[in-house]
Automatic annotation (TrEMBL):
It comes from the Eukaryota. It holds the Pfam family PD40. The keyword Signal applies. It comes from Aspergillus arachidicola. The keyword RNA-binding does not apply. Residues 1-21 form the signal peptide. This is Uncharacterized protein. Keywords: Signal.
Length: 593
């Protein structure tokens, strides 16, 4: 994000009025916003982080995956890129910077209190002194300073609802905007494919709220004031381009324009580049976090640490993961501390998958699952996501060291439509007694309505058919995926597509009875797993985007947070509150650390 000295490009700006153009998709989430409490004012404080610091001695670790830049550092330079220098002498992870109106300060977001926890800081343009402004466990971002330098306005998600806050830098007190969130949402009263983002303005005493400018089919974001306060400058791109801008897949280039309009009338639209002297900006890298890197902990009982995808822990404390970010999507096993790595199954090295398909993210060995005695692993090997449309996937079982690997299902490359019943099979889970494996299937005719090629299946390892194979029973015939047995074997948690664009977390008994839909938000709820104490953890888009969609990079689901709920769907709460895509949780008991 670039922020100009004369007119910072931000998600909100404060001066004669307040501008906000974030996109929380409040109406799409189906939230009863009026019934939720507005967060109380919060002064800047470091006390909220004391439990996080104490958490270094916690005896339970929650491993989780995060899709976010590995580093982000702020730089300042002349407008022609001359005299570039780092802003801070001790950078940690900083981004989304803006100048104060007098050009003496830079305000920015930093995660120096813990990986994933974004707070508001400021520093003089010479790099000192570094001062915290708002330090709480929620997301605080997109800060700007008032013309008189006394008030800082920013977005915070305290209470998991985005609000605009104004902080008095002299008294250290803050107030939340009295406007309801849906009135400040840029995409209110529409589904995702609605009218796009629009720029809204409100006077600083929260009167005179009105729309300044909108454009059908376009996203308008990060509005800010011109130097004389008469024009609004913002970026503009087509709604579909917001996907191209943040997607981690190689799709197509994303183009946008810098546009300004007259504030009073919303007319006199000019595509321009502001005339200014200095810029402050961030440089990011996508170096992946190392296995078991310490993250910020939002729960006083657990220490959060990074892991690659699909982590699972056996009863001896041995971990199995897919090295999608740190390797070539092979299944490896390792100690719970992240050491003693052993390759279990590398489909590229075995000549099953091409390196190019793995690098594109469409294939690999995914979702490993331990047998209860720790001697066996099962995992899906093949093509996933868009790759499954024409390619196969197999359920494989092997010894924990990768020996005695065998296919438990049949598939093909390529898959073809026409009723041949060749299926892509994947995402397996062992039953606690080791006699069953549940997995999902998908066939090329499924898109044409053949539900017999959809759903969950169970392979019975304690039975053998006349031709020497293990029998497979149908559990469901719908758009179901990512199944996982509970520790007592009485339930299977899974993700179901309940409509064309919505996924929910469900449970079902292994005999097909007692189907329960546990989530109901209009956002996607998916990737559910069981916790150590019989609750369910899952990824959710319930809380919306934490920043403007187009401002993310290499993140195909930038709204994901980790929730936990009881096995019957009650007592839902968030376990992460970061700006990034968080997922794939797994608990590791303290005796294995």
């Amino acid at each position: 994000m670039l922020s100009f000295l004369a007119s910072p490009l931000l998600a909100l700006a404060i001066g004669p009025s307040v501008a906000y153009a974030a996109c929380p998709y409040a109406q799409q989430m189906g939230l009863d916003l009026n019934a939720r409490d507005i967060p109380h004012p919060h002064p800047p404080s470091l006390a909220a982080h004391q439990s996080h610091r104490r958490g270094l001695s916690k005896d339970v670790v929650m491993l989780m995956n995060r899709i976010a830049p590995g580093t982000s550092e702020l730089y300042i330079s002349d407008i022609d890129a001359g005299n570039e220098r780092p802003l801070l002498s001790d950078p940690v992870f900083e981004y989304h910077a803006s100048f104060s109106p007098d050009g003496q300060w830079v305000l920015f977001t930093s995660e120096r209190n813990g990986d994933g926890n974004s707070d508001i800081w400021r520093v003089h343009t010479n790099g000192s002194p570094l001062q915290p402004l708002v330090i709480i466990p929620a997301v605080e971002d997109a800060v700007v300073l008032s013309p008189n330098g006394r008030h800082a306005a920013y977005v915070a998600t305290e209470g998991m609802i985005a609000n605009i806050w104004v902080l008095d830098l002299v008294t250290g007190t803050g107030v939340v905007s009295r406007q309801s969130v849906d009135r400040l949402s840029s995409d209110r009263n529409t589904k995702w494919a609605g009218h796009g983002w629009e720029t809204f303005m409100g006077l600083s005493d929260e009167t005179g709220f009105r729309k300044v400018i909108g454009k059908d089919g376009y996203a308008l974001g990060s509005p800010s004031w011109s130097a004389e306060g008469k024009r609004i400058v913002y970026y503009e791109m087509t709604r579909e381009t917001t996907w191209d801008a943040h997607s981690s897949f190689d799709v197509k280039p994303a183009n946008s324009s810098i546009v300004s309009v007259d504030f009073a009338t919303g007319t006199d639209r000019v595509v321009e580049f502001p005339d200014c002297k200095r810029v402050v900006y961030e440089k990011v890298s996508w170096d992946i976090r190392p296995q078991n890197k310490l993250l910020y902990s939002w729960d006083a009982n657990w220490t959060y640490r990074f892991t690659d995808v699909f982590p699972t822990v056996n009863t001896a404390g041995r971990l199995a993961i897919t090295q999608k970010q740190l390797g070539d999507s092979a299944v490896i096993s390792l100690n719970a501390t992240g050491t003693d790595n052993e390759t279990v199954f590398d489909p590229v090295a075995r000549g099953i998958l091409s390196l190019s398909s793995v690098e594109q993210g469409t294939s690999g060995a995914f979702q490993s699952s331990w047998s209860s005695d720790g001697n066996w692993l099962t995992y899906g090997v093949g093509y996933w996501f868009a790759g499954r449309a024409s390619n196969g996937g197999w359920i494989v079982r092997s010894k924990a060291d990768g020996s005695e690997a065998m296919n438990l299902t049949t598939s093909a490359i390529p898959l073809s439509a026409g009723g041949n019943n060749t299926l892509n099979t994947g995402f397996p889970s062992f039953s606690p007694d080791g006699t069953k494996i549940v997995f999902r299937v998908w066939g090329a005719d499924a898109e044409d309505g053949d539900t017999s090629q959809l759903g969950l299946r169970i392979v019975h390892l304690d039975q053998v058919t006349a031709n020497g194979t293990y029998p497979i029973a149908v559990l469901t015939n719908w758009w179901d995926t990512l199944p996982s047995f509970s520790s007592d074997g009485t339930k299977i948690v899974f993700t179901r597509r309940v409509s064309g664009s919505n996924y929910e977390v469900c449970t079902i008994a292994p005999d097909g009875s007692d189907l329960q839909v546990l989530t109901s938000s209009e956002a996607n709820d998916a990737h559910a797993v069981w916790s150590h104490d019989g609750r369910i953890m899952y990824s959710t888009g319930e809380y919306g985007f934490q920043s403007e969609c187009a401002l993310y990079d290499n993140t195909f689901q930038p709204y994901g947070q980790i929730n936990i709920m009881d096995a019957d769907g009650r007592n839902k709460r968030a376990l992460t509150k970061s700006l990034w895509e968080d997922s794939m949780p797994a608990y590791v008991p303290g005796e294995f650390l």
